[in-house]
Write a structure and sequence with these properties.
With 401 residues, the protein is α/β, with parallel strands linked by helices. The chain has a single domain (7-398), classed as Rossmann fold (3-Layer(aba) Sandwich). It has helices at residues 17-32, 51-63, 85-99, 114-127, 185-195, 198-209, 238-257, 283-296, 303-315, 338-347, 356-359, 362-371, and strands spanning 7-8, 11-12, 42-46, 67-72, 104-108, 131-136, 142-144, 151-153, 163-169, 174-180, 213-223, 263-268, 329-330, 397-398. The strands form 4 sheets. Strands 13-12-11-6-3-4-5-14 form an 8-stranded parallel β-sheet, with helices on both faces. A hairpin with a 4-residue loop joins strand 9 and strand 10. Helix 1 (17-32) packs across helix 2 and helix 8 (283-296) crosses helix 10 (338-347). The chain is globular. The protein binds nicotinamide-adenine-dinucleotide. Nicotinamide-adenine-dinucleotide (NAD) binds next to helix 2, strand 4 and strand 11.
Length: 401
């Protein structure tokens, strides 16, 4: 069956196995074109199948000869429906890693659960010994708390006042206005439960208890700050409260890692088109303008460039990472450069439905969105019939809840 993109709102419900494999291959080739980061790491990536997590797994695997265990929650192909993009990405990653003689094993299931943690512990014990790096890159709309069974749903709301803003409807290609209503205490609590730091701490505590953290072990989780136009919905909104909690968790984990001379960091990353970010109001408009400015200045980066810099310039920099005043790594430094922000915000009031193609890089936004699902990659024949069911080279550990 030939597969075409089917977009519903801000998700694409189809994905292309060969396109996803090409996307992974291009990221591998980028890493292979750069100086090596380090030799022979053992890495656990939680949220490893798409976006920043996938890129960090590729950067570690192919830039530091890393053996990797990847955790994600993806859907296999069934009843003539393609698998999710993260499934195809992970198959492609594992095949390429295996061809390089690297150990790569994946776990498909709910990372918030004890059962998935048990499975990861077993795999690490049997196959890696101890881990040098734990990347925590989950982006999820809900979490079932493993101890209480309570299901929390994260909210994308403001805190305090409603927020009116210019917005881009990516589906209709229309610039409109949105109003985002404030969340209540319950929304804040739920978003902190889902996207805050408790689960990251649970993972690190479990690995520590099992004696699976190597001397000097590091861990990193991701945050976003961005410009003031997005603050009411992001930094100062319900998701921002969760990110504050991630910073609290980083400090707590850091203390516990001291005995091993290890470190935990929050890395503030660039705004990029991923499945998670396309769901946030206002952000796609900002990204479309940002891409235009950063591409013109030759500063544009995708997830893989960001993760290469994170590993090479910070986590495995012999001089140690460069931190901001709050102790965070900042790979959003180019995005936040004064000249970049100034240009983005000179375009912001002018951009309209009529001039969107000239004032913004909406074309680049759309192309990158489709690439997330394996569409629009050069060298892939999209008219050809493709096999929807592709198997992992190693037996996939599926943890069904
Ligand atoms: P993404 O949607 O591309 O990836 C999310 C990953 O989490 C996938 O591997 C998915 O399978 C996995 N996942 C989700 N729920 C899961 C569950 N219950 N169990 C197991 N795996 C699960 O997202 P992303 O944009 O790469 O985001 C990763 C992190 O980076 C998030 O913390 C996000 O806030 C942060 N971040 C994103 C941006 C951006 O612009 N995209 C910028 C800065 C920081």
């Amino acid at each position: 069956m030939a597969i075409k993109p089917k977009i519903r709102g801000f998700v694409c419900i189809t994905s292309h196995p060969e396109g996803c494999a090409k996307n992974v291959q291009e990221q591998i080739e980028f890493i292979q074109s750069k100086p090596a980061i380090k030799d022979k790491l053992n890495v656990l990536v939680i949220g490893a199948s798409t976006g920043y997590g996938l890129a960090s797994r590729i950067a570690a695997g192919f830039g530091a000869q890393a053996n990797t265990v990847g955790v994600f929650w993806e859907r296999p192909a069934s009843n003539g429906r393609p698998a999710s993009a993260g499934w195809y990405n992970s198959v492609a990653f594992e095949k390429a890693a295996q061809a390089q003689g690297l150990y790569a094993q994946s776990i498909n299931g709910d990372a918030y659960s004890d059962e998935v943690k048990d499975e990861a512990v077993e795999l690490i014990k049997e196959n890696m010994g101890k881990v040098d790096l734990v990347v925590y890159s989950l982006a999820s709309p809900r979490r079932t708390h493993p101890k209480t069974g309570v299901v929390y749903k994260s909210a994308l709301k403001t805190v305090g006042e409603p927020f009116h803003s210019k917005n881009l409807d990516t589906d209709k290609k229309v610039i409109n206005e949105v109003t985002i209503e404030p969340g209540n205490e319950e929304d804040i609590e739920a978003t902190v439960q889902v996207m805050g730091g408790e689960d990251w701490e649970m993972w690190m505590d479990r690995l520590s208890l099992e004696g699976l953290l190597a001397e000097g072990a590091q861990s990193v989780a991701f945050s976003y700050i961005g410009p003031s136009v997005t603050w009411p919905i992001y930094k100062d909104g319900t998701i921002g409260k969760a990110k504050q909690d991630l910073e609290r968790a980083a400090k707590a984990i850091n203390k516990k890692l001291q005995a091993l001379h290890g470190h935990a960091y929050v890395s503030v990353n660039k705004a990029l088109v991923t499945q998670a970010s396309s769901a946030i109001p206002v952000v796609p408009l900002y990204i479309s303008l940002l891409y235009k400015v950063m591409k013109e200045k030759n500063l544009h980066e995708g997830c893989i460039e960001q993760m290469y810099r994170l590993l090479a310039d910070h986590l495995y920099n012999p001089k140690g990472p460069q931190l901001d005043e709050a102790g965070r790594i900042r790979v959003d430094d180019w995005e936040m450069r004064e000249d970049v922000q100034k240009e983005v915000f000179s375009l912001w009031p002018m951009v309209s439905t009529e001039n969107i193609d000239t004032l913004s890089d909406f074309k680049g936004y759309q192309e990158e969105f489709l690439r997330l699902f394996g569409f629009g990659l050069s060298g892939v024949d999209y008219e050809k019939d493709v096999e929807l069911e592709v198997d992992f080279p190693n037996e996939l550990k599926s943890v069904n809840m």
